[in-house]
Amino acid sequence: MASEPAAPAAPAPDRPTTTVSGVSRLAATVERLRREVRRAQAAADGRGVIELAKGVLVERLHCGPAEAARQLHELADEAGVTPLELAAEIIDQAAQDRMAEATRGFLDQAVRRAQAEHAAEQAAEQAARLRTAESGALAAPDAQAVAESLLRHALAPLGAAAVAVWAADGDGSLTLAGWAGFTEEEATRWRYVPPGVVTPAWRALTERRPVWLDSLGGSGPPSIGLHECAGGRVAVPAGTGGRLIGVLEVCWPGAPEDRSPRVERQLEALAELCAHTLETRPAAGLASAALPATAYRDLPELIDLADGLHDPVLVLRPHIDAGGALADFRIHHVNGHFADLAGRPRTAVVGTLLLECYPLAAEQGGLFDKIERVYATGEPFRADRMVLNALVDEVPLSATAAVSISRLGDSVLLTWRIEDEAARLANLLQHAQRLGRVGGFEENLVTGETLWNAQLFQLHGLPPTASPVPLAELPDHAHPDDEPAIGRFLRTLLHHHRPASAAFRLHRSDGVVRHLRIVAEPVLDTAGHLLAVRGAYQDISAQHWTEVALAATRDRLAHTEQQAVERNRLTLQLQRAIMPATRGPIDAAGLSVAVRYRPAEEESAVGGDWYDAVVLPSGRVLLCVGDVAGHGIDAATGMVVLRNALRGLAATGAGPGQILGWLNLVAHHLTDYVTATALCGLYDPETRVLRWARAGHLPPVLVRAGESATLPLVGGLMLGALDEAEYEEGEFVLEPDDVLLMYTDGLVERRDGTMQEALEHLLATARGPAASLETRLDHLLTHSNADTADDTCIVGVHLPPA
Question: Which SMART domains does its entry note (predicted)?
Answer without folding.
Answer: ANTAR, PP2C_SIG
